[in-house]
Structure formats: structure tokens, C-alpha cells
Amino acid sequence: MRPGETSNGKKPNHDQSIVSKIALSIKSQDGDEVYYRFPRDKRLQHLFTSYCKQKKLNYDAIAFVYDGQRVKASKTPLEMEMEDGDSIDAMMHQDGGGYALVMT
Question: Where is the Ubiquitin-like domain (predicted)?
């Protein structure tokens, strides 16, 4: 096999490298990390639902955060410009957290 050729003797198609799988991890608030190989062109909703099923979590109770921004489940890793080895944080939704002004 010559350099730059695949096992079938053909040069790799540039489109195939874009569609290849990416190594991603999802990290929970308690530090537990789950690793996945995921297609770059598939919506992240599939990854998030898989994670929630594996961890027995309610999908609607989790917020997924990448680079400090909440991730839309309709986006793909390609659209989010994710790279191999990137990590997504899984955070529990929290209601409240504000303060109450008490006047006496």
C-alpha cells in the first residue's frame, strides 16, 4: 500500500474524512466521564439520549455544555467544530438559586 491510499488501493475521499467518527466524552458533575465514538455528521441528540439511558437520567433534566455554551441537540459535532478528544459537560438543571429580599 502506498502512502495516502486506503486498504482497497484508492485514495481517501475528502468527504469521507469529514464524515468519520470523532472521539468525544461526556463528563458529569461528579467527575464521572463516559467515552464515545460518534459520527461527525449526526445530530448530538442521539449521543445525549444514549448517555441519559446509560446513566438512567431524565433527558429533560440535563443541560449539555461545550466550551461554556449550552449545546443544541439539533447540532452536529461538525457544526460545533468539535475536535477529537473534546469533552461535553452534563449538568443537572437547577431551579432557583436567586435571593429573596425580605423587608421588615
Answer: 22-97
